[in-house]
Design brief:
The protein is mainly alpha-helical and about 130 residues long. The chain contains 5 helices and 2 strands; from the N terminus they run H-H-H-E-E-H-H. Strands 1-2 form a two-stranded antiparallel sheet.
Length: about 130
Amino acid sequence: MEWTEGQPIYRQLRDLVIQRVMDGSFPEGEAIPSVRQVATDYRINHLTVGKAYQELVEMGLLEKRRGLGMFVASGARHSLTDDEQQKFLDDELPAFVARVRVLGLTMEDVMEQLMTMQGNVNADHH
C-alpha cells in the first residue's frame, strides 16, 4: 500500500476498508484483519489503525466483538452503496455536467458515448 501525502494515513486506511466492503472482499459478518496485523503489514502505528477502525465503528460499518476482533457489520455494504450513490448524485454528477459544459460538449454527445460504453460493458458480461 502506498500512502499519499496530503491526507492522514488513518483516513486512507478507512477509505481502503470502505472500498473492500463495497467490492465484497470484506464480506458482511466476517472478521477483518486485526489492528496489530494491519499495523505490522503496512508498517504503521497501531494507534493509526485503531483510529481508522474506530471511525468505521462510529459509522456503523464495523462492530467490535469482545475477544474476537472487528467484524463487518450487517447492512454495511448496502448503507455504503446508498451513501456513495447519494454522494455521486450530489457531488460528482454536477461537477461532471459542469465539465461537459466547459468542454463545449452536448448531453447528446455524452449520452451517445455512454450508450456505446454500456453496450461494451454488456458485451463483456456475455
